[in-house]
Amino acid sequence: MAPNYRRACESGAVQVKDNCCYTLVQQLRATISGVPFMPITSARGTGFMTMHHEYKTMTCPFTGAEIALVPALKPDVAILHAHMGDAHGNLYIEGPPVADVLFAKASAKVLATVEQLVPTEQISEKGVTIPYFYVTAVAEVPYGAHPTSCYPLYAYDRPHTETYYAAAQKGQQAFRENYLDQYVFGCTSHDQYLDKVGGDKTLNRLADWRAGRQQWMELYA
Fold it and tell me: Which domain holds residue 7?
């Protein structure tokens, strides 16, 4: 749950354009392919077509069925977090990259943080997930995905997520005082943030998730 986002949506402070994953993927693919739109079938039978007046429909010249057309999407900036990177901007993501590669290829700029900056030779041995020519800037930010996970390096920090959720439920002002002022505005560096969330004790606990079933289950305690 995201109480702050929900509150902003319900109050009208932000405009909501809900979408489905595959539609977004096709819009990114359109930009990458250099075409103005892509056909989809994933929105059929849903209310997405009424929420997005920019979507169009056409009769398929091959099957005669009605299909939807979605415009190309080119983000101004994509912000990605990867397991490793080098000084040139080559990125390595361990495990499925999901839509990260598509975002990198479709976006005008890519800002990347990585768990570790390593020599280019080490990236080459692992295999480049996103090559340097898509990346605008890269910075080493250990535990940069906290309080979410960056498997297999570390797991979700569930106690901290509970702290975030409890503060967010109390409203905008309370969230600023109880969370943002402490963990965001009150930190002058990433190291200071890591100290505030528990330092080595917390980080070691999150990294020990794969040591065995007991350690993994303790994350849910």
Answer: 3-71
